[in-house]
């Protein structure tokens, strides 16, 4: 189960490295030491928040501002965690609580699309392995970015920015092929997000609204499905 | 100062993640809420992909879009996620040079 989880989590590793390196470079430029920027990855483990945090530190924002902005940006994980934990009912709290701490957009997406393991014996190992794979890649990548940031050509690190989006697409398409309605749910969420951005709502809240309201379409669309 | 920011950010990310782990066992959801929660992964993926993908190269949004279309094509023919990711990176890289 553990090995299977690492294999399932491997694409996350590939998607994380470029983002983590980008974060490392930015954090270094923002004036954080190598120890500080790596510690942030260890303790926070949230890509978008850390990139934003490094940016805000660079422009000299206050601690409270940064912390509140982090909370707002991460509120989407509350919704994701609720959905994920609802699927993991068969797994005990002593596993669930630490697993919830490793929840990111990517680990959530991969785990939520592999739900059969939750009912299997030793299923908790499967999710733990996915999250640890991602966590290690994230910390290692941040450190690497802090060390050799300026060596990487900008054009390459910019191109790598597409990695996470490609991963989300790669995760979504097989589900859409199985069940077209799933694609409709995703498109509705996309449109809600786009409308929110158009109305000037910040990205963090736009993702929350897209996820919550877009997910509501599932109440009707997934009606026949029994899970 | 930075240490204080790190600890604060750490708490601000941990709290929303961990609360559901403790409350979900105490709740019995109605059927429609379960359907809603089951749809959340797909909705989240949708909201995470678009319009964010347009900002890969902020000055040239079409590059991210083309990278995304290539990813859709590669995923549609059933290739592994890793191949999809590498294919998209190569596409964007080629469009940049």
From TrEMBL, chain B:
The lineage of its organism: Bacteria, Bacillati, Bacillota, Bacilli, Bacillales. Pfam families: AzlD. Keywords: Membrane, Transmembrane, Transmembrane helix. It comes from the Bacteria. This is Branched-subunit amino acid transport protein. It comes from Virgibacillus natechei. The chain crosses the membrane at residues 6-24, 36-57, 63-96.
């Amino acid at each position: 189960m553990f090995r299977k989880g690492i294999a399932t989590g491997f694409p996350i590793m590939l998607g994380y490295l470029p983002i983590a390196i980008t974060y490392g470079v930015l954090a270094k430029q923002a004036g954080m030491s190598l120890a500080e920027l790596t510690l942030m990855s260890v303790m926070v483990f949230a890509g978008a928040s850390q990139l934003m945090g490094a940016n805000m530190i660079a422009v000299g924002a206050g601690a409270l501002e940064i912390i509140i902005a982090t909370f707002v940006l991460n509120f989407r994980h509350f919704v994701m965690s609720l959905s994920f934990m609802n699927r993991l009912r068969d797994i005990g709290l002593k596993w669930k609580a630490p697993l919830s701490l490793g929840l990111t957009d990517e680990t959530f997406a991969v785990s939520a699309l592999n739900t059969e393991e939750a009912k299997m014996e030793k299923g908790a190992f499967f999710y733990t392995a996915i999250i640890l794979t991602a966590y290690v890649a994230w910390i290692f990548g941040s450190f690497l970015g802090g060390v050799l940031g300026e060596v990487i050509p900008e054009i390459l690190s910019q191109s790598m920015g597409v990695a996470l989006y490609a991963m989300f697409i790669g995760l979504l398409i097989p589900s859409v092929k199985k069940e077209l309605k799933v694609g409709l749910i995703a498109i509705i969420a996309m449109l809600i997000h786009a409308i929110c951005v158009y109305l000037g709502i910040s990205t963090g809240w736009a993702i929350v609204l897209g996820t919550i309201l877009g997910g509501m379409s599932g109440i009707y669309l997934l009606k026949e499905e029994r899970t | 100062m930075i240490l204080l920011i790190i600890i604060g950010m750490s708490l601000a990310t941990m709290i929303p993640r961990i609360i559901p782990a403790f409350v979900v066992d105490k709740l019995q959801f109605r059927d429609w809420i379960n359907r809603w929660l089951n749809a959340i992964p797909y909705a989240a993926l949708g909201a995470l992909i678009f319009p964010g993908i347009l900002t890969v190269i902020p000055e040239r949004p079409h590059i991210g879009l083309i990278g995304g279309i290539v990813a859709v094509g590669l995923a549609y023919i059933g290739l592994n996620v890793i191949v999809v990711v590498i294919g998209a990176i190569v596409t964007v890289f080629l469009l940049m040079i």
